[in-house]
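User: Okay, second chain of the day. Same drill as before: sequence in, structure tokens out.
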Amino acid sequence: MTETSLTATVNQYDEPVETVWYSFEVDGVTRRCFVQALAAGLLITTVASRIQAQERAREESGGRRQGGGREAPQLILGARVHIAKDGAITVMTGKVEGGQGARAQLTQAAAEELRIPPQRVALLMADTSLVPDDGPTVGSRTTPSTLPAVRAGCAAARKLLLETAAKLWNVAPDNIAVRDGAAIHEATNRSFTYADLASSEQAVEAMKQPVPRDIELTAVQQWQVLGQSLPRPNGRDIVTGAHRYPSDLVLDGMLYGKILRPPGFGATLKSIDPGPAKAMQGVVVVQDGSLVGVAAPTTYQAKKALRAMAATAQWQTSAHPSSREIYAYLREKAAAAPPKNPFDQEIRSAARALRATYHVAYIQHVPLEPRAAVAQWDTDGGLTVWTASQRPFGVRDELARAFGMSAEKVRVIVPDFGGGFGGKHTGEAAVEAARLARAAGKPVAVRWTREEEFTWAYFRPAAVIDIEASLDASGRLTSWYFVNLNSGPAAIDTPYNTGRKRTEFVRCDAPLRHGSYRALAATANNFARECFMDELAEAAGKDPLEFRLAHLDNARLRAVLEEAAKRFDWATQHAKQERDQGQGVVSGVGLACGMEKGSYVATCAQVMVDRSQQTIRVSRVCTAFECGAITSPENLRAQVHGAIIQGLGPALSEAMEFEDGRVLNASLWKYQVPRIKDLPEMEIHLLNRPDLNSVGAGETPLIGLAPAIANAVYDATSQRIRQMPIRLAGSSVTPFGDAPSH
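Assistant: Same drill. Structure tokens below.
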């Protein structure tokens, strides 16, 4: 049995997203008109209102946005594809680009179905006034959900091109080919382009119709653009600095905002004197409910004004646990008592029975770009906000709720931004900027500092995980008991044949605001399970690879596990008796595997442990990964590389430290993420499955790394690892060593 109910969810996303809800005093506002940002052509002039009407119908019918449990209403073709009279094609999506490669992948998908080169596709992303709501960019859903939706819209546009040409020429559609942006009738050497289509009255009416649910997509075997590697369409702008991230945006007359933060978690403001800040020239002060902030012509002035006001603040603080006692606190604050292991009989009759508890620390997302937003109010009461978010329509709804407005009066635009990793679901910076802008009567930018991002963004939840299992005399599992406290149910069920089993997630009254993170709770659950599988293998007298395969029927998981082991040369490496590398350094190897979001990963790792310095260096990582048919090989490879690099931090060094409601390591000096010097040799082996649907790849590669490292550390030192980040017995030093020098 697996407990999966949560306090709040986003579609089928199985992590709570703790939104900070604001409610401000509402000024009089009037209905705003939507901006039409595209050239004339086959774009229905009422696209925005049609999209909103579809959203209202969906909500009234209890339907969910795409990626949810119910089928969403069909989108009209003109809301997905715009064809200008000069033949320029714009494809629209509500997804965002935060460095994961969605812009290139969706461009490829559109080009494939439109039968045009990718360079001819202009992809418009994440502008809530102009694009359809494809759901939030979360849960690795872009590939399995939005990619087919974009392909369907573009395939429908291609079919319209073909059928319009066939009718014009009075020939059978089967006698027409579509290539390089034109319908071509070889027998008469005639062609009909997308530019021609844009002038067709028949096409104008057809673009108002829903995309057919049964539209035929190009078979994998016929892919010409998908399945290839495409450089990022705006890669040159990113490399040269021409691209403007949300934190780069500057509008005419813009002010810079700063928000008063509490001195600690749970602190509430008793009183404050805004006078010192109001006395400063050009400074605007806002005190509205829980939000207190300033806006000024420069960041320096804003900081100065905020300091002056903060010096007068009186706070009511509250008791708060420290990170040193967090695991006992979570047990104490569990919403319900964890269920007892129901398999007493199997435990009593077992040849061997093992029990272990695993701990996983709170960590932060550490995106390259902290939260940022620019807000501007129109003269007619409409609001436009540029921000970095994985949920543009969700942020739009947050803003509408905060200001008592209709969502139709709010426009959220998300430029390509510097990383999210599950940490940018909520719109705090957007709401803060909008409230300051309304008071100032001018555009306002709010850019969180790194310290604010570390402290006031939500965290990946900590976990306490209890496992107990039994083995028979032949080394086969006969029972499995697994309980996760606090961090979530993602990947909680075991892929192994375990005999009888019970798996459960128990919520806790968590001391920190927490939410999703790349791979969600799958990282914690897979870490505990795969470390425990190594302990069970030793108890059964089996090789860790042999033990896993003996309990594994899933052919796809077996395939990546066997591939990683072969490429790593597991049999030879694990059989080596000599671990001492000299000068107090010992080596070890470990492996782990897992499945999540429909994709499969196996990782082998080699570590070097310096006993004298109490440090761990990962020297080699070999990962095999499979996510169905590969749509973009190099982007997929980059995703796996990125997951390994990011995963090193939580595995070896990253952990939030807090006491008395204050974060103690809210900087990149004190909170250690991997540096270039920490990176291992990395081997990535991608298993292409053109016979299967493509699924997401941004998260699952992460989940095999930490347990593979932990198992390698045991192989080197005979110390069992039961916590993330990994600590050697008796050591207070992080495995990367001392904090890096300036």
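The two ends are 51 Å apart (CA to CA).

User: Thanks, on to the next one.
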